[in-house]
Hints:
By secondary structure, this protein is of the alpha+beta class. It contains 19 helices and eleven strands. The chain has a seven-stranded mixed beta sheet, with helices on both faces. A hairpin with a 7-residue loop joins strand 6 and strand 7 (321-323). 37% of the residues are buried.
Amino acid sequence: MGPPPAAAPRGGQPRFGPPLTTASLIGWTALSAVLPGAAHLRAGNRRTGIALLATFGVVLVALVVLGLRLKDNAGVALRGSTMTAVMAGAAVCALAWFALVLLSFVALRPQRLTQIGQVVSGVVAGVLCVAVMAPFAFTANTIRTASQLLDDVTAPVEGSTPVPVRAEDPWNGRTRVNFLLIGGDAAGNRVGVRTDSMTVASVNIATGNTVLFSLPRNLQYVRFPTTSPLRKVFPNGFDAEGQGLLNSVWYYADNNPQVMGGKNRGAQALKDAIGYTLGLHIDYYAMVDMYGFAALIDAVGGLKIRVEKDVKWGGHFGTAGTIKAGYRTLNGEEVLWYGRSRVDSDDFSRMARQRCVIGALAQQVTPATVLANFNKIASAARHLFRTDIPRDLLEHLVPLGMKVRSAKITSLQFVPPLIYTGNPDWAKIRRLTKDAIRESMSDRGAVAATASPMMSAGSAASATPSGSHSPSASPSPSASRTPVVAGASPRTTPTPNDKAAKSLSDLCGF
Length: 510
């Protein structure tokens, strides 16, 4: 005999369809997890089913509208209040979907099944109740991890007070913002932090056009502005440890808190030195540990880089391995050594490779990549980054970062033969910095600088790009560390003056 006919409707009583088999009951219960109200409609509870469907539709529309709004202001997602709201919402949704699946199962009247059918369907329904909570639990955990990561990375240094960020003008009226990007190496047999890679990213806030200024680790005798405590210690240029290499400034400042007026002032000392050298105000820094960097690259699936020639790495003779030439996808270890190896090359070749790594990261790591590998990235980044960027500024950095990805990025290295690192022409560095920024603001290609190799202190001070804050109250660094003897011709550096910033696409083959 076939199933009994459907019960006739009586007043407000629900109208039940034919009895369901075990498989169909499980199917309708599962469908209700993705289409709320479906099981209730099948069971004859039309009012409840329609109400659930309507509520689900309203929620979907609200999410679409919210997504469209966030598309134009994605940085809002990094607000602490937004993250807290998402975590709370995920918890509520998890409980709601648990209850939805359970009530849908009950509405389908599993008691009409055989005893075996009731057991089987009950077990499956229980698994579904737990399973539907998993995505919301994953979302809440991911957001919580992200929030903790941002708190850890942006935690202010002891004794420092972050500048408040105003939502209506997060950049405080500036037209440019300058970030110091540092690759630090405190691993192995080294004591303290040595900043082996130093690049300033000068970003036009309106357009996203960016100039990358790379400074070599062995740039010697950098000067400090009058506002820096190190100016009194090194009035003629930084000469600690006999050589006065730029990559020792952070280390010296951290190890001499009595000079700096407090602990952990290495970042500020380096920002002062590099900012004064370029004639720019360095707004923020971000440092990445070289060894943790390899884990980060692995977390995003590697980087595609054009390797111009074989790069050997390991020891003094490159016995650990070789990165073959060609357009290749490099893993974390390969990217690390591609940027660090000095075998059969010098610091300046290494700098060129490092800026290609930075450019590849900026162009290839998309929001989708970050989301797909978020937990891996967060795990690698927790002990990888240091920065003085305030937490409240991060939401404004997201739209700026999106501009940079699609804007013009040029690069300039202050290395031989352009700049002689043992006796730098400071005025020339400032002039080239000004020229590169001016060219990045135009639609024309970079043009060669033609000014003379030497400039007066006054003209160098005036070379500060518009929109940045120059330490102009201090005299410009002299062109030479060696004092000029009366009656002798000024000492100049043996470098040409026809170099300008070039596109990373041309330099790195993106």
